């Protein structure tokens, strides 16, 4: 068994409402599982749709629905009929903060560092199943699948402290200079190396990560 390198981690910087992140999500989940013994993964939410950008999905549905077709063609994921119905109806409010806050709660409550899997589940619930990411019961159900207490999860999700921590994470991502999602940054000590900006096939991701692990192994 290979040991984790000291002061090394892979930052997966995404947004729950990012279609390209949904396309990349199965690959990130696979990568995290394959490299679990070698490098820890940390998921950061970028706050793509916040503030003045929060609006009903119907306002941009024509653009969004066209963009989803490209994501499907390139990545092979499918956006479910329930999500398309949500978009076509139009009143659902796109807001990155509630699902990002749910991921923040999960990172605090889960002892097994399964945040990549939970981020994947949030996106699948929305983009495949059409679930409401503004509703606490969506996360209560997801939390139960990880043997977490649903009531405790909801209390944390509704707390001001979690709201503040989530906003702090958005600010941190902006300070890192991340311009788009998904972005993968390999961190070793005080150095950061961009593994990818945007979608990349699995074998290319793996090859890039192997190269970075080998290059930093003796630093």
TrEMBL record:
It comes from Solirubrum puertoriconensis. Transmembrane segments: none annotated. It comes from the Bacteria. Pfam families: Thioredoxin_5 (PF13743). This is DsbA family protein.
């Amino acid at each position: 068994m290979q040991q984790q390198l000291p002061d090394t981690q892979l930052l997966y910087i995404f947004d729950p409402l990012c279609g390209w992140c949904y396309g990349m999500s199965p690959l990130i989940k696979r990568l995290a599982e394959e490299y679990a013994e070698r490098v820890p993964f940390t998921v950061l939410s970028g706050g793509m749709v916040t503030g003045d950008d929060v609006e009903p999905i119907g306002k941009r549905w024509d653009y969004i629905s066209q963009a989803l077709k490209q994501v499907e063609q390139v990545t092979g994921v499918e956006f479910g009929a329930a999500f398309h119905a949500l978009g076509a109806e139009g009143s659902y409010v796109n807001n990155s903060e509630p699902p990002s806050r749910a991921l923040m709660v999960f990172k605090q409550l889960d002892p097994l560092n399964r945040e990549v899997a939970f981020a994947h589940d949030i996106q699948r619930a929305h983009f495949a199943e059409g679930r409401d990411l503004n509703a606490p019961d969506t996360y209560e159900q997801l939390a139960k699948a990880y043997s977490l207490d649903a009531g405790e999860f909801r209390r944390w999700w509704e707390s001001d402290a979690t709201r503040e921590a989530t906003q702090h994470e958005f600010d941190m991502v902006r300070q890192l200079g991340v311009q788009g999602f998904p972005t993968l940054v390999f961190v070793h000590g005080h150095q950061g190396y961009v593994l990818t900006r945007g979608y990349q096939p699995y074998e290319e991701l793996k090859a890039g990560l192997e190269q970075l692990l080998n290059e930093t192994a003796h630093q």
